[in-house]
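Changelog entry: the Guanylate kinase record was regenerated in this release. Current contents:
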Amino acid sequence: MLKKIRNGGMIEWGELDDQLYGTSADAVRSVVRSGRMCVLDCAPQALAHLYNSEFMPFVVHIVPPQLEEFLQLENLRQNRRPVDQLSKVCAESDQIANGPHADQIHLTLMNRNMDVTFKRLTDALELLRNDTQWVPESWMS
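Regenerated structure tokens:
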């Protein structure tokens, strides 16, 4: 696996309990070539490996509501997260939205309600299946 990481064969990787794990470009390639849709939950840095004509990703950024509303929604949960953790989620989301990969985000969904957000995501994916999509000119050459 270290060899794959060094050679750029891994889209994303990490270590847990002294074990390396990750998503290989070959695995994604295999899913795409089979005609299926590959859904990945990955860090923005993975776009460096994915955002190209081979994979042609549709990038969705799911964001939390503003912190005040996020806190109100969190109070409805049984297992509430601390304010500093929610604040960190909001800050990280803002960094993604305004970071170096911001121009690669095709759709932003605010997650106030899991069911509504999921429906909006599946609706967007259905449009991808049926409607003409714009892609970067560089993907066409």
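The chain has a mean pLDDT of 92.
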